[in-house]
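Hey, resending since the last one bounced:
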Amino acid sequence: MQVMHGWATRYAPWVGLVGILGTAETRAGDYEGSPQVAEFVGEMTRDYGFAGEQLMGVFREAERKQAILDAISKPAERVKQWNEYRPMFITDARIARGVDFWRQHEAVLARAEQEYGVPAQVIVSIIGVETFFGRNTGNYRVIDALSTLGFDYPPRAEFFRKELREFLLLAREEQVDPLTLKGSYAGAMGLPQFMPSSFRAYAVDFDGDGHINIWTNPDDAIGSVASYFKRHGWVAGEPVVSRADVRGDQVDDGLTTGIEPTKTVGELRALGWSSHDALRDDMPVTAFRLEGDNGPEYWMGLKNFYAITRYNRSVMYAMAVHQLSEQLVQARGVK
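The C-alpha cells again:
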C-alpha cells in the first residue's frame, strides 16, 4: 500500500496529488466529460472539502471495466446445497494454511481475542474463507470497480456511489494513492474483503503505525475482523450453533424466514425441535435446515451465529466459517 504523506487530513481540501496525477492532464479516461461524474465530484467538493479539479484528475485515470459489469450482471448460479457448498471451503489445503497462519500470527491473534472477545480461530477462519489467507484478494483497482458500478450499473448505482464516496474518504484519511488500491470486482478490499464503508466504520490500526492497512498488514486485518464482530454483537465465550433433532409434522413450521433470530427455543420445542445443547427457552435463535451428505440437518443459530451472518448474509457462509474454525482447532491440536 503506497502511503502519500502529503495528503490532507479529514475535511481539508485534497492536496498532494501532483505526483500521482502527473499524466492525468494529457490522458483522457473513460469518465472524461461524464455528467454523472461531474455531479459526484461537485458533491464531494461541496460536502467533504475535496479539490474538484484534483478529484477530476482521479476520474480521468479511472477505467470502465466491462468484465465487472459482466460479472455482476450474469445470471445467478443455481443455489448450491450444503453438501456442495461445504467442500468448497472445508478443505485440507485451507485447514493446513490456516494452521500456519495462526501459528505465524499467534501473538496478534491472542491480543485480538483478549481485546475483542472473538476467538482466534474465528478470525483466522474468516480470512481463510474470504481470501485463502491473502491468496485471492482481487485484481481490480478499487477506483475502477466502484466507478464502473457507480456510474454504469443502474440497478445498484446508488449503493456503489456511496461506497465510492467512502473509498475516496478512506484514501484521504489513510494518505494512500486511490489509484493503486486493489480489490474484488465489487470493491471489497484486503485480506478480510471489507467494503469501503465497513473499512471506515470498523477497521483498526492494530499495530499502531498510524495507518490502517488491511491489504498487506495481517495485524491490521486481524484486528479489523475482530473489531467488526465485536461491533456486530459477538459475545465472548458463547456458543455459535446447536444441532437439533426433530420429530413430528410441524417441524418445518419452525424454520426461520431470513437469517434474523426470530424464533425462540421454547417455540421450536413446541414444534418438535430438540437441541443437542442446554438452551434457555426464551433464547432467540435462527432455525434452519441444511441438506447434508446424510440427509437433512436441523440447526439453531445463536447470537454469535447471527454475528457471522452480518459479515455475509448467508447461513451456509456462517456455517462454513464456524466449521472451518472448528477444524482449525482440531488440526492445531493434532500437529
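The longest strand covers residues 284-292.

Sorry for the duplicate.
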